Amino acid sequence: MAIKKQFLKTKPVCKVTFTIEAKDAEKAFVCGNFNNWNQTEHELKKLKNGNFKTTIDLEKDNTFEFKYIIDNNWANEEQADSYKWNGLGSENSVLEV
To answer: Where does the Glycoside hydrolase family 13 N-terminal domain start and stop, copy by copy (predicted)?
Structure first.
């Protein structure tokens, strides 16, 4: 799993690219407080190499909590900036942009 951040000079936006390795998976999504935890809004596209990838524009100077859903299983980002207890028995990945 990986996160790439690209800060734009002309806008208060950071282009965040989410990439996950899940060669055996059929579908993957990323959801978090940036999309009100909508579990289907941000689907990652499956690449020929088996990875999944998507890019989302997020407002700079913010902190976001998120998780992946890979074939209906929740997963955290291994390279998250940090983790935060979610009160549901697990932690969420944290992204600072």
So the answer is: 15-83
Q: Which two tokens stand for residue 62?
A: 């913010």
Strands (E), the chain: 2-7, 13-21, 28-32, 45-46, 51-59, 63-70, 73-75, 82-85, 91-96
CA 10/CA 7 separation, integer angstroms: 9
Q: What is the pTM of this model?
A: 0.93
Are residues 23 and 35 in contact, defined by beta-carbon separation less than 8 angstroms?
Answer: no
Contact status, residue 63 vs residue 80, Cβ threshold 8 Å? no
Does residue 92 contact residue 81 with C-beta atoms inside 8 Å?
no
> From CA 4, how far away is CA 46, in angstroms rounded?
17
The alpha carbon of residue 75 and the mean position of all alpha carbons in its chain are separated, in whole angstroms, by 10
Kindly report, residue by residue over 15-68, the tens digit of the pLDDT: 999 999 999 999 999 999 999 999 999 999 999 999 999 999 999 999 999 999
